[in-house]
Design goal:
single chain; 258 residues; Cytidine Deaminase, domain 2; six-stranded mixed beta sheet; four-stranded mixed beta sheet; 6 helices; 14 strands; flat
């Protein structure tokens, strides 16, 4: 993986404009097919951006219930040339491999045997509508890769006052796993923070947030019906702040103050 941390590359293309045909150079996102090995066994292949791989691994394995805390991972070795990441854990895991051995950029996959038992999120954390507006504005200006390519998803963890961590990826599931993994490694407690994500909130996204215990999930996109239903069941406040500055709260609106 030459230039393994670079998220973009320049490609040549042909543009047709009012001035006719011309050759142009465009900045596009890079895609990496990363083989993930767990305790010597190949687990899956992840299609992702080639940055923040350790955060991705921590977030994914925790979301899927394969680890219970950051210290369960004892080592991560990234082979850039072969595009392989090898993970060793302090606990013995009996893993049923993915039936389809590929996690696409959109996150579609079959299940793994160990699944985290999700608990209802019960915290008095609140955030004001004006803080929601301010955070979303900051979030939309965070990613230079998005500004350059319009081809990346972003996810962030924030306090009501400020964004404290953000990650990008070609897949919205991966972007979320990366920022969740970063905060897990740093020991950031989820109870007093919210998640912000650029993509729509489907059931898989909602379940990842619930697995890590964050009480508020903010998006600029429209959630699915199952995403909304799960948010209601699991005690998560699901919020959309749209481009026309309208704030819509789909569940547990008591956490959003005027």
């Amino acid at each position: 993986m030459a230039d393994s941390n670079k998220q973009t590359k320049i490609v040549s293309a042909t543009a047709f404009t009012s001035h006719g045909r011309t050759r142009v150079e465009k900045q596009v996102c890079r895609e990496l097919a990363l083989d993930l090995h767990l305790n010597g066994e190949r687990l899956t292949t992840i299609l992702s951006s080639p940055n923040d791989i350790e955060d991705l691994v921590f977030g994914l394995l925790y979301s899927e219930g394969l680890i219970k805390k950051a210290k369960d991972i004892t080592s991560i070795n990234i082979d850039n040339e072969k595009a392989v990441v090898s993970v060793e854990t302090a606990i013995t895991l009996e893993v049923t491999p993915y039936l389809r051995p590929l996690i696409a950029t959109g996150g579609s996959k079959s299940g793994i045997a160990p699944k985290r038992i999700l608990k209802n999120i019960d915290t008095n954390f609140t955030v004001s509508s004006s803080q929601i507006t301010s955070l979303m504005s900051s979030f939309m200006n965070t990613s230079k890769v998005y500004s350059g390519t319009r081809g990346i998803h972003s996810a962030a963890v924030a306090t009501p006052e400020d964004i404290i961590a953000s990650r990008d990826d070609i897949g919205r599931h991966n972007a979320l796993d990366k920022v969740l993994g970063s905060c897990l490694r740093r020991g950031i407690e989820p109870q007093n923070h919210l998640i912000i994500i650029s993509g729509r909130i489907s059931s898989e996204i909602l379940l990842k947030v619930a697995a890590h215990g964050y009480p508020v999930l903010l998006t600029k996109a429209v959630p699915t019906d199952i995403g909304i239903s799960l948010a209601k069941d699991l005690g998560i406040t699901l919020v959309r702040r749209s481009y026309d500055n309208v704030i819509t709260v789909y569940s547990h609106d008591w956490r959003i103050t005027d």
